[in-house]
Amino acid sequence: MSAGLVGVTAPAASAATPLRVQILMFDGVEEQDFVAPVEVLGLAGKLTGGAVVTSLVSAGRPGPVKCTYGTVVEVPRTWSPCDILVVPGGGYTDRNGPGVHRLNADQGFLRRLAESRALPVGICTGTMVLSAAGLTKGRNATTHNGAKADLATQGAKVIDARVVDDGDLITGGGITAGLEVSLWLVERFLGAKAAQRTEVVLEYERRGTVWRA
Asked: Does residue 67 carry a catalytic annotation?
C-alpha cells in the first residue's frame, strides 16, 4: 500500500505517496453515497497538493452506471489494487432490482472483496456488501438504520454512531453519513489540519460521532 495504511493512526499520505482511493460504482448506487466521497476526497486532494487520488471504478466492466434516481455516470475503469475501497449503498429495499443485492449475489466479486488488501469502507447499505463478503462478522460496524437489524443478524456488533472506525474496517450510517466518513478518512490519513481546511471550503460541519475501537 502506497501510504502504509496498516496500523496507521497519524497522517501517512503525501503528494509523494498519495492515498489511492477507489469508489465502487454499480447500477442502483445511491447518488449521495458516492458523491460525498468524490467531493470531499477530491477537494482534500486539491488542498494537499495531491496527497489523495480518487477514482470511480466498476465491479465488472467499465461503462455507464445508472444510479438510484436516474443519474447516469460513465465509469472509466475496473476495480484494481488500491489503498482504500469505498463501497456505497443503494437499492437495499428492492431485492430484485439494481443495487447492493446484485453485488451480493455475485460470489466471484465477494471472494475478491474478501481477499482484497485494500481498507474496506462501507457507506450506508454498502456495509451490507462488506457483510456479505464476511468482513463485518464479529466486528464493530454500522449502516443505514433500515439495515441495522440485518447487519446484526449477519454477525456484526452494531454500533449506533455516524462513523465506526474498527481499525482496518470503516463503516458509516445512512446516506449523508458519507460526508462524515470521507472527512474522517481525510483526518485519519492526511491529518486534522487537512480535514479542517476541507470543512471550511465545503462550508460543512461534521455531525454525530466517530466511534473508534
From this structure: no
Please state, in angstroms and rounded to a whole number, the distance separating the CA atoms of residues 118 and 108: 17
Cβ neighbours of residue 162 under 8 Å, at least 6 residues apart?
Answer: 142, 172, 173, 177, 180, 207, 208, 209, 210
Cβ distance 16 to 167 under 8 Å?
no
Where do the DSSP E strands lie in the chain?
A: 19-25, 52-58, 63-66, 72-75, 77-78, 84-87, 119-122, 140-141, 157-158, 163-165, 170-172, 210-212
Selected catalytic residue, list 65, 124, 163, 170: 124
pTM score over 0.85: yes
Question: How do residues 126-181 score in pLDDT, each as one tens digit?
Answer: 999 999 999 999 999 999 999 999 999 999 999 999 999 999 999 999 999 999 99
| Cell numbers found for residue 160 | 449506533
